[in-house]
């Protein structure tokens, strides 16, 4: 295979992709080679917005051939390749540039927009499922069950996921609160964290100074720490937290940043609820009684 590296392929993940293609080239069928050619010629910016179906069309094959080829190259699927290609963009690509790329990718057609959102959502959830470390998930559930109080922290858009998880846990009978402050006032919320608590930090793409202080405070008092984050953040903080769960993020902006976090939050909350069905049912009954008293 000719090595047709262009200026826009100076992306570590694409360089690795091309290496894998060279290593497996002789093993591939003509259809898989066509997919490889398309993958080799594409820019990293464009790859982030393409679906398997569109790559199949570009290579005159099919989306099934695209997926099989990627799996032969050692990837779980297109979502894993995109996740690796996206890493440099999390820190170097300006927000307005990503917005322009997103608008160009969708073409402005509502049906096309719908298809892209659904496709990327399914890809990200499948990627989450394939890469979920079940031992870490189970350890997180155990920590939550043993906690005196669950303290949940998330910044930016992830605050929505933090609030959502808090609400689910309360409805299942667990004592939980969400940190709603930042900066100077954050110190007041951190004072309440104790050694029997578990702090859940939601920081998919990066961790700001406030988040680092939350982790430092939890460590200082001996609280358990569950981190929901991207793999590179989880690896960097592996020794600072009790358990780190890889939650894949997206830089395309086509799907919500907290999509996979919400799915993970649901899985954690439901596992906690199932572990103590009596408590869950009792809390549900109490909640319903209170709603009726309020006229609902």
Description of the molecule:
- By secondary structure, this protein is of the alpha/beta class.
- The chain contains 16 helices and 5 strands.
- A 5-stranded parallel sheet has the order 2-1-3-4-5, sandwiched between helices.
- Helix 14 (231-236) links the parallel strand 4 (224-229) and strand 5.
- The chain is elongated, with a radius of gyration of 22 Å.
- The protein starts with 11 loop residues before the first helix and ends with a helix.
- The relative contact order is 0.11.
Concise structural overview:
By secondary structure, the chain is of the alpha/beta class. Helix content is 60%, strand content 8%. The protein has a five-stranded parallel beta sheet, with helices on both faces.
Protein topology:
Blueprint: H1 12-24, H2 30-41, H3 44-47, H4 52-58, H5 63-72, H6 78-86, H7 89-92, H8 95-106, H9 110-131, H10 134-146, E1 150-154, H11 158-171, E2 176-178, H12 186-191, E3 198-203, H13 209-221, E4 224-229, H14 231-236, E5 243-246, H15 259-275, H16 277-293
Parallel strand pairs: 1-2, 1-3, 3-4, 4-5
Helix pairs in contact: 1-6, 2-5, 4-5, 10-15, 11-15
